[in-house]
Structure formats: structure tokens, C-alpha cells
Amino acid sequence: MEQTKVQIIKETDALTDALLTISHYLRDNPETAYQEHKACDYLSRFLEKQGFEVQRGAGGIETAFMARPAGGEVSRPCVAILAEYDALPKIGHGCGHNLIAAASMGAAVALGRTLGDLANGFIVVGTPAEEGGGGKARLYDADVFEGVDAAMMFHPGRLNIPAKGMLGRIKFKMEFFGKTAHASGSPDQGINALDALVAAFTHINALRQHILPDARIHGIITHGGDAPNIIPDYAAGLFYVRAASLAYREALFERIKHCAEGAALATGAKVKITVDPPAIDPFKRNPPLEEAVRINLEALGVCIDTDDGKRGSSDIGNLSQHIPCIHAYLAIVDDIPGHSIAFAQATDTDRGQQAMLNAAKMLAMTAYDFLTSATLREKVATAFSETD
Ligand SMILES: [Zn+2]
Ligand SMILES: [Zn+2]
Predict the structure, then answer these.
(1) How far apart are the CA of 154 and the centre of ligand 2, in A?
(2) What is the pLDDT of residue 253?
(3) pLDDT tens-digit profile of 287-324?
(4) Which pLDDT value is given to residue 71?
(5) 155 CA from centroid of ligand 2 (Å)
(6) Ligand 2 center to residue 375 CA distance, Å?
(7) 61 Cα to the center of ligand 1, angstroms
(8) Given a cut of 90, is residue 116 above it in pLDDT?
(9) Which DSSP string do the residues of 256-316 spell out, in sequence order?
(10) How far apart are CA 141 and CA 194, in angstroms?
(11) For burial by CB atoms within 10 Å, which of 32, 125, 225, 309 has the most?
């Protein structure tokens, strides 16, 4: 192994206690999307103590930050190390973002200590609200990633893999407006908004048989009326549509709109569909970056698993459409599902801690590869321009 990578591993190991303290602090102070004030402040202060200049409120988002080694200007090529730190309502760090933040802090400090002249070639971006808030999309739109050539992070999970596909997603509200009437005395005078919503569900259920196997449509009824003896004049549901490509995401959303319009026509209710922005884009993969990650993980003794084909969505997808991105997974559990209390607990097992340390090393090593190899950068750029 190259001397610099050996040094990166040593520096990361020396940070073990500090990184575990970060992970524990976040676990004990879970904050949901855009409310991550303690986390943002804690991580900013940590980086300042480690010799970074930190800009709080990056991109006009209060709980985002951007940091770089103090003194000197950011140079090109430039890598962004991303830190997520938002938690889930009620179940805390059931997605393991406490480990993501700790690993990224470790990678940043190890890089700062080993890169020498290249230390201006990376920044750290604190990206809030991954869970439903699309923080990375907003930060990109606010030009926080201006001048960044690649962005990198890891996510804890059930497998060790350099990357996997992620689905694009649109979150939307479907509302039907009808007319109240006595449900027994004068039902002929009413227009039933709940019937319209139920009909829309039925149309969507029929549509599901005819969509691509990796696409998803799922929804709930959030308002179904006020009393059984009143014909409901208002009904509402919240839905997600997910697809592996931008084009299919849009096409499927159009067909869902038709389901809603058909239900409105059949019942006489009026329909309104409102998108909750930002729409999440599918993850654009980059094979040369994945290969660099794989080599580094194997050098760290991590065995790479086979992709299980299970797909979610994340705002890293939006960033990946503009900048080559790494979103590697390291296993901390076998069968425990994400977004659970058991997963949050798994972040503090030996396996969880080890995965976080390996992730910190892998991120720093891969950033080093990217910054020092013009050949890798060229391959990454070519793959990026050739992929949809
Ligand atoms: Zn999650
Ligand atoms: Zn997550």
C-alpha cells in the first residue's frame, strides 16, 4: 500500500475515540430534518478545533455548513466530503446518520493531516435533511458545490458495496373536493370526496401491474372525512412515486395524475395534486469511482457483497446528476431493517463502530486517489458524460 494511505489509516485510527464521541453525541441528541442545530454546531466546533475554517449556514440553510482547511484558497481538483446528521422522528438515528457524520469528520481530519500541498483540494459539507427534506438538492441550487469535482460519503446498511442504484422520487399530495350532505337523508345531494380518493387508489392498484418492476407507488389516506353520517366533502392522501430513471419517474407521475382525474370524473369531485419539492433524482452511478472504492475497501480487509437489488431514494441522487458521487454502503447489520430502533442501536456495536472507521479510511483514501491521479479523474469524467 502507498505510504500516504498507510498514513491515512494511522491518522484515522488515532482519531477513534473522538469519532466515537461524535457518533454517541448525535445518537443521544437526535434532531430531525432542518432542526439539526446541535449537530451542526457540534460538528462545526469539532472541525474548528481540528484547524478548519467553518462557514455556518452554508447555502442559506441554517443547519448546513461548509468547512475547509484554514488558510489558503480551495484549489482544483476538489473533493467534497459530505456529512449527514439528521435523525428520524420518534426513532432517532435509525438510519445511522450519526455514523455518516463521524466517518466524514474522520476522513476530513485524516486528509488534512496527510495531504500536504493538496490539502486545499477538499472541503467538508454538512448536508441536513436527507430524510425527506432534500438538503443536498437545495445546497446544490445555492451553489455550495461550485468548483467541486467529486462528492463522497458512505451509508451504513446490510451490505458492503461501493454503490447501488437509487430511485428517483416525487412526493405529492392528492386532494379531492366534493359536497357535504346528510348521508342518510339526502345522499343524492352530496359529492363524495372519499369515494373519489378510494377510486384513485383502485386505479393506481390496477396501474401497478403494468409498471417496470423497480418502480414503486405508495400512499396513505391522511383525511377521509369527519363523520360517517356526513358525505365527505374533502379527502386527501400523501403519495410517493419512485422510478429508476428521470424520464420514467415523470411518465409514471403523469399516469397517476390520470388515475386521479378519472376518479374525479367518475364521482364529480374536483381533484388537486400538489408536489412537495424537491423531487428526488435517481442516483447516477460512476463505475471508475466505484472501482476505486472497491480497491480501497478490499485493502482495508472488507469483503464486498453482491447487490441485493433493494432500492431506496436519497438526495445524493440530485447531486449525482451534476457531480460524480460516491455513496458506498458498509454493513453494520445482517437482517435488521433500516429506519428502526434496532438499527439505531446497531450503530453502537463493535461492528457499527468498525464500519464507521473503515468508511472514514475509505473516503480519505479514495479522495487521495482522485486528487493525485489524473487518469482516474479522466475516467470518472468520461463515465459521467457517457451515462444518462
Ligand atoms: Zn433513511
Ligand atoms: Zn440515511
Answers:
(1) 10
(2) 98
(3) 999 999 999 999 999 999 999 999 999 999 999 999 99
(4) 86
(5) 7
(6) 32
(7) 20
(8) no
(9) HHHHHHHHHHHHT-EEEEEEEEEEEPPP---HHHHHHHHHHHHHTTPPPPPP-------TH
(10) 38
(11) 125
Percent of the chain with pLDDT over 90: 97
Domains belonging to the chain, first-starting first, are 3-166+283-386 (3.40.630.10), 168-280 (3.30.70.360)
Dist. CA 341 → ligand 1 center (Å): 12
Distance 96 CA to ligand 2 centre (A): 6
The answer to whether the bond into 162 is cis (omega within 30° of 0) is no
Q: Is 147 left (phi over 0), alpha (psi -120 to 50) or beta?
A: left
DSSP, res 59: G
Under a CB-based contact definition with an 8 Å cutoff, are residues 362 and 300 in contact? yes
Cell triple for residue 381? Answer: 469524467
Beta carbons of 12 and 106 less than 8 angstroms apart: yes
- Put simply, whether the predicted model's pTM sits higher than 0.90 gets the answer yes
Q: How far apart are CA 338 and CA 91, in angstroms?
A: 11
Q: What is the CA radius of gyration of the chain?
A: 23
Q: What's the grid cell of residue 329?
A: 454502503
Q: Please name which ligand lies nearest the alpha carbon of 154.
A: 2
pLDDT (tens digit per residue) in 253-298:
999 999 999 999 999 999 999 999 999 999 999 999 999 999 999 9
87: cell is: 435523525
Ligand with minimal distance to 136 CA: 2
* Residue 92 region by backbone torsions, left for phi larger than 0, else alpha for psi between -120 and 50, else beta: left
pLDDT digits over 184-206, tens only? 999 999 999 999 999 999 999 99
